[in-house]
User: Which sequence fits this backbone?
C-alpha cells in the first residue's frame, strides 16, 4: 500500500498537460485574467456579435447583399484603389527608407519624424486638408485643372488620401532592415565585379522583399478600412467614388443593419486574410533570412 | 571625383536625384497637407481664427474630446500593463493567439469598430430593448464614444510593452523577490522604472489616436451638436456647412496635437531608443 503510493509518480512520468510553466513571479492570474476579460468585453464579444448577425442572414442572404450592384461597386472601388495606393506606397516607401538610412543631409531627422505624420494626424484633418489642396480651386487642383485633370471628388482623390495614410507602414517595415544590411555583402559584390546597380538588384533588395510585402499588406489593410481622410476628397458618388466604409454608414443611417453587417463582414474577412498573409510572410522571412 | 568613390554607395548624381524625388514626394504628400491646415485656418486673419474658438459648440467638442481620452487612455494603459506582464514574463499555452487577438483591432476598419457597438447597444441592437427599458443610453452618448475609442486604441500600450518586457526577461524581478520585496514593491521599484519610457511612448500614441479618432466615433456619435461631437466630428460638421475657417481652426488644434506627439515621440526615440525596443510600424 505504502510502496504503491510511493511508486505512483514514477508510473506517470513528466509530460502532462500544463497551462503554464511554473514561475516565481507573482500576478499571473490577476494580469492574465484581467487582460482576457477586458479583451473579451471590448473586442471579442462585439466582433462575435457582428458575425452572429451576419450568419443569421444565411449564406445566400450574405451573397445577395454583397453582390447588390451598389455594394459590389463600393467594394471594388475600396479594394482596387487601396491596391494601387499600397503599390505606390511600397515603391516610395522603399526609396524613402533608403534615403533616410543611407544618406546624410541636413534635416534628415526632421524628415524621418515627419514620415509618421499620417499616424499622428487625425484622419478628418488630413481629409479636409487634402480636399483643400486637390479641389479644382486648391493649390494643386488649380495647377492640374488646365490639363483637364480633376483629382478631388474623383477616385483619384481617394487614391491620394490612401497613399497618405499608408505611407508610414511601407517606410517603417523596411527601414530597420536597410539599417541592418551587412556592408561586407556590398563590398563582396563590388569586389566580385558587380556594378552598383547589379549589387542593389541582386544582393541588397532580395532580402528586403518579405518586409516590402509586409509593408504592402499593412498599407493595403489600412487603406481598405480608411474612412476619415477619404470621404472629404472622394466626392462620394455612388458607383464611382463611394468607398465600402462609407456605404456601411449610409446603410446604418437607413437602419439597414443587415446591409451594414454584410459589408463589414466582407471587409473583416479580407482583413483577416491579409493579416494571415502577413504572419505567413514573417514566418517565411524568419526562416529564410533570419529576421522578421 | 571618381577616384576614391566608395563601392558601397551610389554615385553622387544618383544620390541627388533619389534625394530630390524623396523630398518632392514627402513634401507633396506629407508637408503640403499639414501646411494647408494652418494656411486655411488663418485665411481670414488671426482674429477670425481666434473667434472660431468662442463658439460654445467648439468648446463643448474640445471638452468632450478631452473627457473621452481621459477615460479611454487609462483603461488601455491598465490593460496594456496587465497583458504585457502576463505575455512577457510567463510561458503559457496559447500565448501567440492572445498576442494576435490583442492586435486585432488594428486590422478592423474604424467604421466596423463603431458598427459592432451599434449592433450590440443600438436601438435595434441585441441589448437595445433592455437598455431602453432601464433608461440607459450607450449609443449616441458618452459611453458609446468611449467604447469606440477604447476599441480603436486597444493595442497601443500593450504592443509597445510586450517586446520590450520580453527582451528584459525576468531576472530583475526575480532578484527583487529574492531580496524579500513584495509583489507590488517589485513592480513599482523594478518593473515600472524599466518600462517607463516605453510606457510613455505607448500612452502618447494611444492618446493621439484617441483624440483624433473619426470613423469609429462617427458611427456611434449621432452628431448631436455640442453634445456628442468630438473635435474631429465637429470639424466635419463645420466643413459640411462650408464654414471653412472654423473647420480648419479646430483642425489646426488637432494638427498641433499631432505635431507635439511627433516631436515628443522623436525625442523619446533619440534619447531612449534602447529603452523603447521593438518600435516598428504601428
Assistant:
Amino acid at each position: 500500500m505504502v510502496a504503491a503510493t510511493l511508486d505512483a509518480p514514477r508510473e506517470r512520468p513528466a509530460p502532462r498537460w500544463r497551462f503554464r510553466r511554473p514561475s516565481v513571479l507573482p500576478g499571473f492570474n490577476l494580469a492574465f485574467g484581467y487582460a482576457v476579460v477586458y479583451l473579451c468585453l471590448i473586442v471579442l464579444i462585439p466582433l462575435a456579435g457582428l458575425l452572429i448577425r451576419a450568419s443569421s442572414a444565411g449564406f445566400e442572404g450574405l451573397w445577395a447583399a454583397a453582390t447588390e450592384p451598389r455594394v459590389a461597386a463600393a467594394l471594388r472601388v475600396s479594394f482596387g484603389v487601396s491596391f494601387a495606393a499600397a503599390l505606390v506606397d511600397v515603391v516610395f516607401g522603399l526609396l524613402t527608407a533608403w534615403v533616410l538610412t543611407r544618406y546624410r543631409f541636413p534635416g534628415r531627422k526632421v524628415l524621418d519624424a515627419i514620415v509618421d505624420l499620417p499616424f499622428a494626424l487625425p484622419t478628418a484633418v488630413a481629409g479636409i486638408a487634402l480636399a483643400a489642396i486637390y479641389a479644382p480651386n486648391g493649390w494643386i487642383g488649380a495647377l492640374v485643372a488646365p490639363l483637364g485633370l480633376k483629382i478631388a471628388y474623383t477616385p483619384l482623390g481617394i487614391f491620394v488620401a490612401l497613399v497618405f495614410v499608408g505611407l508610414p507602414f511601407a517606410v517603417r517595415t523596411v527601414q530597420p532592415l536597410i539599417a541592418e544590411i551587412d556592408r561586407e555583402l556590398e563590398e563582396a559584390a563590388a569586389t566580385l565585379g558587380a556594378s552598383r546597380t547589379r549589387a542593389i538588384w541582386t544582393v541588397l533588395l532580395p532580402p528586403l522583399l518579405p518586409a516590402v510585402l509586409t509593408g504592402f499588406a499593412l498599407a493595403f489593410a489600412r487603406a481598405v478600412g480608411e474612412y476619415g481622410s477619404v470621404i472629404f476628397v472622394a466626392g462620394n458618388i455612388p458607383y464611382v467614388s463611394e468607398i465600402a466604409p462609407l456605404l456601411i454608414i449610409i446603410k446604418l443611417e437607413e437602419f439597414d443593419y443587415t446591409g451594414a453587417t454584410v459589408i463589414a463582414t466582407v471587409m473583416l474577412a479580407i482583413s483577416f486574410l491579409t493579416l494571415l498573409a502577413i504572419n505567413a510572410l514573417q514566418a517565411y522571412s524568419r526562416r529564410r533570412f533570419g529576421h522578421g | 571625383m571618381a577616384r576614391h568613390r566608395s563601392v558601397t554607395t551610389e554615385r553622387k548624381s544618383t544620390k541627388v536625384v533619389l534625394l530630390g524625388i524623396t523630398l518632392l514626394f514627402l513634401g507633396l504628400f506629407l508637408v503640403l497637407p499639414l501646411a494647408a491646415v494652418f494656411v486655411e485656418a488663418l485665411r481670414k486673419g488671426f482674429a477670425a481664427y481666434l473667434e472660431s474658438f468662442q463658439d460654445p459648440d467648439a468648446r463643448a467638442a474640445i471638452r468632450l474630446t478631452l473627457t473621452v481620452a481621459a477615460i479611454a487612455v487609462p483603461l488601455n494603459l491598465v490593460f496594456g500593463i496587465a497583458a504585457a506582464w502576463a505575455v512577457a514574463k510567463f510561458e503559457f499555452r496559447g500565448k501567440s493567439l492572445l498576442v494576435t487577438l490583442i492586435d486585432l483591432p488594428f486590422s478592423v476598419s474604424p467604421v466596423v469598430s463603431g458598427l459592432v457597438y451599434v449592433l450590440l447597444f443600438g436601438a435595434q441592437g441585441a441589448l437595445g430593448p433592455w437598455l431602453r427599458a432601464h433608461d440607459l443610453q450607450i449609443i449616441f452618448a458618452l459611453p458609446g464614444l468611449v467604447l469606440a475609442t477604447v476599441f480603436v486604441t486597444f493595442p497601443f500600450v500593450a504592443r509597445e510593452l510586450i517586446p520590450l518586457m520580453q527582451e528584459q526577461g525576468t531576472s530583475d524581478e526575480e532578484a527583487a523577490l529574492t531580496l524579500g520585496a513584495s509583489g507590488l514593491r517589485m513592480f513599482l521599484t523594478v518593473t515600472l522604472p524599466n518600462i517607463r519610457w516605453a510606457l510613455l511612448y505607448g500612452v502618447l500614441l494611444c492618446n493621439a489616436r484617441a483624440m483624433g479618432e473619426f470613423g469609429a466615433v462617427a458611427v456611434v456619435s449621432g452628431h448631436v451638436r455640442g453634445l456628442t461631437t468630438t473635435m474631429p466630428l465637429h470639424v466635419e460638421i463645420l466643413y459640411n456647412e462650408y464654414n471653412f475657417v472654423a473647420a480648419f481652426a479646430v483642425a489646426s488644434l488637432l494638427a498641433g496635437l499631432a505635431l507635439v506627439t511627433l516631436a515628443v515621440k522623436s525625442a523619446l526615440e533619440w534619447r531612449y531608443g534602447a529603452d523603447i525596443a521593438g518600435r516598428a510600424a504601428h
User: Anything to note?
Assistant: Chain A touches chain B through 101 residues (CB under 8 Å). DSSP finds 15 helices and no strands in chain A. The CA atoms of residues 113 and 160 of chain A lie 21 Å apart. The radius of gyration of chain A is 26 Å.
